[in-house]
Amino acid sequence: MTKQKLVVVGNGMAGARAVEEILARGGAEQFDITMFGDEPYGNYNRILLSNVLNGSQNEEEIFLNPLSWYRENNIKLHAGVRVERIVRTSRHVVGNGVVEPYDKAIIATGSRSYLPPVRGLHRSDGSLKPGVFVFRSLDDCRAIAGYAEGRARAVVIGGGLLGLEAARGLQNFGLRVEVVHRGSHLMGQQLDGVAGSILKNTMHAMDVAVHLRKNTEAVLGEDHVTGISFSDGTALDCDMVVIATGISPNVEVAVRSGLTVERAIVADDHMRSPDDPNIFVVGECAQHRGMSYGLVAPLWEQAKVLADHITGANTANAYRGSKVSTKLKVMGVELASMGVTEPEDERDEIIQFTEPKKGVYKKLIVRDGRLIGAILLGDISKAAYLTQAFDRNTPLPEDRLALLFDLGTPSKRVTMDEMPLDTQVCNCNGVSKGALMACVKSGRRTTKAVMDATRAGLGCGSCKGLVEEVIQWAAGGHLEEDPSVHYYVPGVPLNKTDLIRACREQNLKSVSSVFKALAGGKEDAGSKPGLASLLSIIWAGEYEEERDARFINERVHANIQRDGTFSVIPQMAGGVTSPAQLRRIADVAEKYHVPLVKLTGGQRIDLVGVKKDDLPKMWQDLGMPSGHAYGKSYRTCKSCIGTDYCRYGVGDSIALAVRIETYLKGIDSPHKLKMATAGCPRNCSEAMVKDFGAVAVEGGRWELYIGGAAGAHVRKGDILCTVDSPDAVMTYLSRFVQYYRENAKYLERTYSFVERVGLEKIRAIVVDDSEGIAAQLEANLLSSTTAYKDPWKAALTSQVPNEFSSLLRVIQ
Amino acid sequence: MSGNGTERFVTTLGEIPAGEGRTFEIDGKRVAIFHTRAGEVFAIDAMCPHRGGPMADGLVGDATVLCPLHAWKFDLRTGNAITGLCSINAYPTRLDDKNHILLKI
C-alpha cells in the first residue's frame, strides 16, 4: 500500500501532540508526515515559558520534541516557514516558497497574543515600539529578558494568569513591577471577587502593585516606552510594557483556504472541518460547538479523537467538548479552579470558607448534589478529589464540610513526590511504590496492566485508589485507559446494562453460552464467577448452573483456607442457637477432629480446618442448613438481644434479623452482603456500619441504613428512611438489595455503590419509586429467594464426579 | 514442559467434570489434571509455587488456570506464569480414543 501524505500546519503543542497520537496508532505505516512550524525550533511547552522568564528552568528543559524527534520519526519539518494557504482544489499546502502536496492536512496554528486598541503601541513602520512586548513565544521571552536588563520599572497590562506569571518573571530581573487590569478583580476567568482580592493582597505582600479597573489608553514615549496613560486621566511611568490581555486564534490560513471561520476555525465532533473531509483542526485555533480552549487538557483530548479518525483506529470516537479545570501556582500561590465561579441558578448551593489572613479561600458551587464549579486558593489539598468529582459529574457526599477539609484524619497524607520508594502501597500483596514505578517504566501503560503484573490492589482491594494514584503519578499523565475497566467482567466486552440486555435478548442462561455468544468463544477464567452471579440474579430459577464457573468456595459450599482445607459455618439466624444445636456442633467437631472452633464476626460458629472429603459427611451429621459464609452473596444478619430481655430494647431486633435471614439466605449478589438489626439506638450489633442496617427507635419505628462498612474500608451507613413496621423494613430492604444486585458492578460493595450512584437517587427509586420499578424489584428478588435450595442438602445427592475428593488414585 | 518418562494411564475423562480439575497421586507425586470445556486435558503440579494453593480447585478458562488462593494465573499448556512471578511444572498429557487420560511424567 502506498502511504498517504499528511501535512501538519503548525508545530506547537497541539500539532506535535496530534502527530504523537497518530504515531501511537501505527500512523507511521499509513502516512508520510510533513510539519510546518512558524518558529525555527522543535516543539516546546509554552506553559513553562514563565519558568524560563523567572529563571527556574532553562530553555532546553522545556522542549517536548527536540529536532532529533522529527528525524527519528521520519517527519519532514519546515521550521521557520509560515504557511500562507491550503490550496484545496489541487491539495497543496503553500508557504514561503515551499509547496507540499497532501492527502490529509491538519491545521494547528494555535493563537497569538491579543493586542488591545491602545494608542502608541506601534512605531510608524508598524513594528512594536521598543519596550512594548507580548509574552507568547520563546523569542518573546528572550526579548523581554534582553530589554529588562538595567531597567527600573515594568508594567504588565492584563491581570489574568499569563499577566501574573509575566509579572513574577519580571521581578526576577530586579524591576519594580506593577499590574494594571481592566476588570474588577484579578484572574476573572478562574476567580470570583473574594478570591481575586485575596490574591491581590498576596501580591502586594510580594511587592507587586495591582491597579484594578484601569483602561489603558496610550503607551507614552517617542522612540521607546516611558509610561502609559489611562482613560481616567491618570498615568504610570515605566521603562517597559508587557501586554497579556488574552489570545486570539490564528485563523488566517483557514480564511485564505476558504474554510468556515467564526471566532476560530470551525471543527466537528471528529475535529474535522465541515467544509473538507481531508482537513482537520486541533488546538487553540479550533472552535468546537461554539467553544475554543486555551488550556492543554482539552487539546490533548482533541488530539486523541483526531488521531482515532485520521488513522481509522476508532471511528466511533467523538469529541464532545471539555470540562475545564486548572491547577496552578501563581506568584507562589497555589490555586485550583474549575467550572463556574458564581452560582447561575437559584437552586445552586454555595459552600464557602475564607481565611484572608492566611490567604486561604475555598468556594464550591453545587447543583443537584453535583459540583459545577470550585475555587481553591492557598490550600488545594482537596483539589484532586474535587477535580475528579467535577470531571466525572459524580454525586457529592452529604457531608459538605468534608468537601473542603480532611477532617479527623490522623496525619496529612504525603504527596506522591514525598512518598519514600519503599513505602508499601498494597498491604495484601506487599507491593511498594518503587515496584509500581519500575513496572510503569518497563512500558506498561494501563492501570490494569500494572496491577496485573505486580498484583497490587488485587488482594482485599482497599488500596486500589492509592495504587491508581501512584501509577498515574509514575506515568506522568501518559497513562492509557484499558477499555475493560468499563466492562462488567474483563472477558466480555460489554458493560453491565448491555450485558444484561444481551443475555435476556439471546436467552443466555449459562456462563458457557455467554462466552460462546458474546466473547467470540473465548473463555476467561477470572470472568466466570461474575457471570455466574449475574446470570443467577437475572434468571433466578431458570439460571443454568455450571459448577466450573463458580469459585471453589461456591463449588463446595465452604470457605477455602490457606492450607487448602475448608471451614464449615452452619446457619444461625440472628445469632440465636440452642443447647441441642451446640451439642451437635460439638459432637461433629470432635468426630472429624476439627482443629479450630471459632466464633465468627457474624455471630456464628466456625469449624475451621476441615478436609474437603469430610464436608458432606459433616453437613449430614450437623443436620443444619448452610450459613453461606463463603460466597459473593447474602452472608448474615447480626442482631442484639432486642426487646425480650434487654431493658433498653424498643424493637424486636432478633425477630427481624431472623426474618431477613430466612428471606435472603444464600442469594447471589455482586459482592458480600452483611446486615444487622439493633433493638435500640445503642446499636450494639453495629447496624450503622453494615451493607444494610435497621435500628429500632422509640415509637415502634426503624431507621434504615445503607452502604455502611467496617472491614477493609470503614464507612458509616447513610440513612435511607425511617419506617414504622418490620413489614416496611422488608419492603425497602428488598427494593434496595435487588436494585444493588441489578446495578452494581461485580465485586462492588454497597459502600462504593451508594457513593457512585448517589444516596438521593437510590432513595428516590427505593422509597419514592421515582422510576416506577419498585414492584418489579420486589418481584425479581422474590423469584430469586423462591428458587433457593440449601446447597448442603442438595450436595448430598449431587451427581458431580469426585466433587469432594481432595486426592484421587491412579486407576491401576 | 517437564516429563520425559514413559506415558502412563491415569484415569478416564469422565472422572473429571468439564471445566474442572482434580488432584491425582502418581508414584508419590501430586499432579492436578484438568479437563477443559473444549475437551482438552492438561496436567501441572498440584500445588501453586506461590503459597501451595491446590491448583485443581482453580478456575479454568480456555487453557489457563487461576490458583484459588491468590489468583496467580498459569498457561496450562506450558506452565508459564501469565500473572504472578514464577511458572509451574506442566506435563505432557493426551486423550486416547477410549477417552483415557495419558500422562508422561
Assembly context of the chains: heterodimer
Mean pLDDT of chain B: 91
E-strand count of chain B = 11
The proportion of residues in beta strands of chain B is: 35-45%
> What shape does the CA trace of chain B take?
globular
As laid out across the biggest beta sheet of chain B, the strand order is 2-3-4-9
Share of helix of chain B, binned: under 10%
The helix content of chain A, as a percent range, equals 25-40%
* Largest β sheet strand count, sense and barrel closure of chain B: 4 strands, antiparallel
Strand content of chain A: 15-25%
**CATH architecture annotation of chain B:** 3-layer Sandwich
The coarse overall form of chain A would be: elongated
The overall pLDDT of chain A, averaged over residues, is 90
Main features:
heterodimer; A: 812 residues; alpha/beta; 6-stranded mixed beta sheet; 26 helices; 42 strands; 22% strand; elongated; B: 105 residues; mainly beta; Rieske Iron-sulfur Protein; 4-stranded antiparallel beta sheet; 0% helix
Write the layout of secondary structure elements.
The complex is a heterodimer of chains A (812) and B (105).
Chain A: E1 4-9, H1 13-24, H2 27-30, E2 31-37, E3 43-44, H3 49-54, E4 63-65, H4 67-72, E5 76-79, E6 85-87, E7 92-95, E8 98-101, E9 104-107, E10 111-113, E11 132-134, H5 138-148, E12 153-157, H6 161-171, E13 176-180, H7 193-205, E14 209-211, E15 216-220, E16 227-230, E17 235-237, E18 240-243, E19 247-249, H8 252-256, E20 265-267, E21 272-273, E22 276-281, E23 286-288, H9 296-311, E24 325-330, E25 333-339, E26 349-355, E27 360-367, E28 370-377, H10 383-392, H11 401-404, E29 424-426, E30 431-432, H12 433-441, H13 447-454, H14 464-475, H15 496-505, H16 511-518, H17 528-539, H18 552-556, E31 559-560, E32 566-568, H19 579-591, E33 596-599, E34 605-610, H20 615-622, E35 634-639, H21 653-664, E36 673-678, E37 692-697, E38 701-706, E39 709-710, E40 714-715, E41 718-723, H22 726-743, H23 750-757, H24 759-766, H25 774-786, H26 791-795, E42 808-809
Parallel strand pairs in A: 1-2, 1-9, 2-5, 9-22, 11-18, 12-13, 12-18, 13-14, 20-23, 35-36, 36-37
Antiparallel strand pairs in A: 3-4, 6-7, 7-8, 10-19, 15-16, 16-17, 21-22, 24-25, 25-28, 26-27, 27-28, 29-30, 31-32, 32-34, 33-34, 37-38, 38-41, 39-40
Helix pairs in contact in A: 1-9, 12-13, 12-14, 22-25
Chain B: E1 7-12, E2 20-26, E3 29-35, E4 41-45, E5 59-61, E6 64-66, E7 73-75, E8 81-83, E9 90-91, E10 93-95, E11 100-104
Antiparallel strand pairs in B: 1-11, 2-3, 3-4, 4-9, 5-6, 6-7, 7-8, 10-11
